[in-house]
Design a protein that fits this description.
cell membrane, ArtM/GltK/GlnP/TcyL/YhdX-like, D-Maltodextrin-Binding Protein, domain 2, 5-stranded mixed sheet, transmembrane helix, MetI-like fold, alpha/beta, elongated, amino-acid transport, 3 domains, MetI-like_sf
């Protein structure tokens, strides 16, 4: 079943060259589908001011920025409600390809490579390309030519990354998923310059006196380098309707007005950049982290116990299933499993991001718990089962009343370590937009332009959570040792 879903996922996201554009559009009902639902879903990565970022309004977090304002106008023209779905930048196009969102909008450049996988609207804004450098290096780096053979940072999978590789001689390009991480790398001199769109570069310079902007000097085709909306292949009717809105928006000069509005929001964010001011963000992150961890622990233990019992079953089928499951899960990264559950299985069943994260983490934990329980069962002396058999106990009763209680005492430290690890490993769900602690950390970094302090706060929070959990587990371990 898993293999079938994997193949389905892979084939679904590949561009179809066997169907002509005319045929695809003839069968296209993308606009009708959006209007029938009464909403249009926008996938975005809200860590890219002034295009999209988060602010706290009336005690609630809200995604704002030029892209959001443009999309609101498009939704108004279509007569539907706008729903914003947040996730990492590397997943916004996948969200469109797999039907998780109708539109991806995150300062996306419609490059020829991306056009092979998704449809694009007309360009709605062209801000140009620039570099961010440290102000102390202003005399050293003055143009693109001066960056030759230097370390250039850029967001992975972006136009800026490809431009740095192809147009700066001898450049060593370092890619990261988040611009906030790249800015931190720049300020700590891990990279010499950061390739970024001009509006975002200007936003960072206005809010960080240690940074300076220089023009890129690239000679580019504006049709490939401006910002456009990405839609699923074959969404011709929806693209046409969106293009009508974009034409009106540009004619009225609204993008520049929206940028000015974004600037006002950014000033609100940077008016008070103390971590205490953003305590609600961290509190929400803690809430989701603990929720995911607690539920995943319960289902992980249940699944692990079932798999362990299957491993000891005389049925060759159950035995094989248990081994195959554990080997497969332990042989693939948790991040890939999270993305597969959300995007891959989401093709068949449209699961929410939070539920997808819980399922993926639970399934992953179950495989490791199975190995812990299996080791615990093996550690119980065989004489115990022989004695139980001599007393006339059935095998199920022997396992339930004799073996498992003794095994639990033996595996409790290892099981506790798995619980503690789960609290930390659950942070991976942030890539699909679950607002856990890591997700909130990146939002605070983007909003405040402070690279280190939010990381430090999150590190302390994780330590406090795991320290308390460790003390609780140690308490129960002591109770077990003294129990007769």
């Amino acid at each position: 079943m898993t293999l079938c879903l994997s193949l389905l996922f892979l084939f679904t996201i590949q561009p179809s060259h066997s169907i002509t554009t005319t045929t695809a559009y003839a069968a296209d009902n993308s606009l009708q589908r959006v209007k029938a639902r009464g909403k249009i879903v926008m996938a975005t990565s809200p860590d890219y001011p002034p295009y999209e970022f988060q602010v706290s309004k009336n005690g609630k977090s809200e995604v704002v920025g030029m892209d959001v304002d443009i999309m609101k106008q498009v939704a108004k023209d279509l007569g539907v409600k706008l729903v914003v779905k947040s996730m990492s930048f590397s997943n916004v196009l996948v969200a469109v390809e797999t039907g998780k969102a109708d539109v991806a909008m995150s300062g996306i450049n419609p490059t020829p490579e991306r056009r092979q996988s998704v449809d694009f609207s007309e360009i709605y804004y062209n801000g140009g390309q620039s570099f961010l450098i440290n102000k102390t290096d202003a005399g050293k780096y003055t143009s693109k030519a001066s960056l030759a053979h230097k370390i250039i940072g850029a967001q992975t999978g972006t136009l800026q990354y490809n431009l740095a590789k192809s147009k700066i001689p001898g450049a060593q390009v370092k890619g990261m998923d988040k611009n906030t991480d790249l800015v931190l790398a720049l300020k700590t001199h891990k990279i010499d310059a950061l390739g970024i769109e001009t509006p975002s570069a200007e936003a960072y310079v206005k809010n960080d006196p240690d940074l300076k902007m220089i023009k890129s000097g690239y000679s580019l085709n504006k049709n490939d380098t401006g910002s456009a909306m990405a839609l699923k292949k074959g969404s011709g009717t929806l693209v046409a309707a969106i293009n009508k809105s974009i034409t009106k928006i540009k004619a009225k000069g609204l993008p520049n007005q929206y940028l000015a509005q974004a600037g006002k929001y950014m000033k609100v964010n940077t008016h008070n950049t103390s971590m205490f001011h953003y305590w609600t963000y961290f509190a929400k992150g803690i809430e989701y982290t603990l929720l995911i961890s607690a539920i995943s622990v319960i289902f992980g233990v249940l699944l692990g116990t079932i798999l362990a019992l299957m491993r000891f079953s005389k049925s060759k089928i159950f035995h094989a299933i248990s081994i195959a499951y554990v080997e497969f899960v332990r042989g693939t990264p948790l991040m890939v499993q999270v993305m597969f559950v959300y995007f891959g299985i989401g093709i068949v069943v449209n699961l929410p991001a939070l539920l997808s994260g819980i399922i993926a983490v639970s399934l992953n934990s179950g495989a490791y718990v199975e190995e812990i329980i299996r080791g615990g069962i093996n550690s119980v002396d065989k004489g115990q089962t022989e004695a139980s058999a001599s007393l006339g106990l059935a095998k199920t009763d022997t396992m339930r009343f004799v073996v498992l209680p003794q095994a639990l005492k033996n595996i409790w430290p290892a099981l506790g370590n798995e619980f503690v690890s789960l609290v930390k490993e659950s942070s991976i769900v942030s890539i699909i937009g679950v607002t856990d602690l890591i997700y909130q950390l990146n939002i605070v970094r983007a909003d405040t332009y402070r690279g280190v302090m939010p990381v430090f706060v999150a590190m302390i929070i994780y330590f406090v959570m795991t320290f308390i959990l460790t003390r609780v587990l140690n308490y129960f371990e002591g109770r077990m040792k003294h129990a007769k």
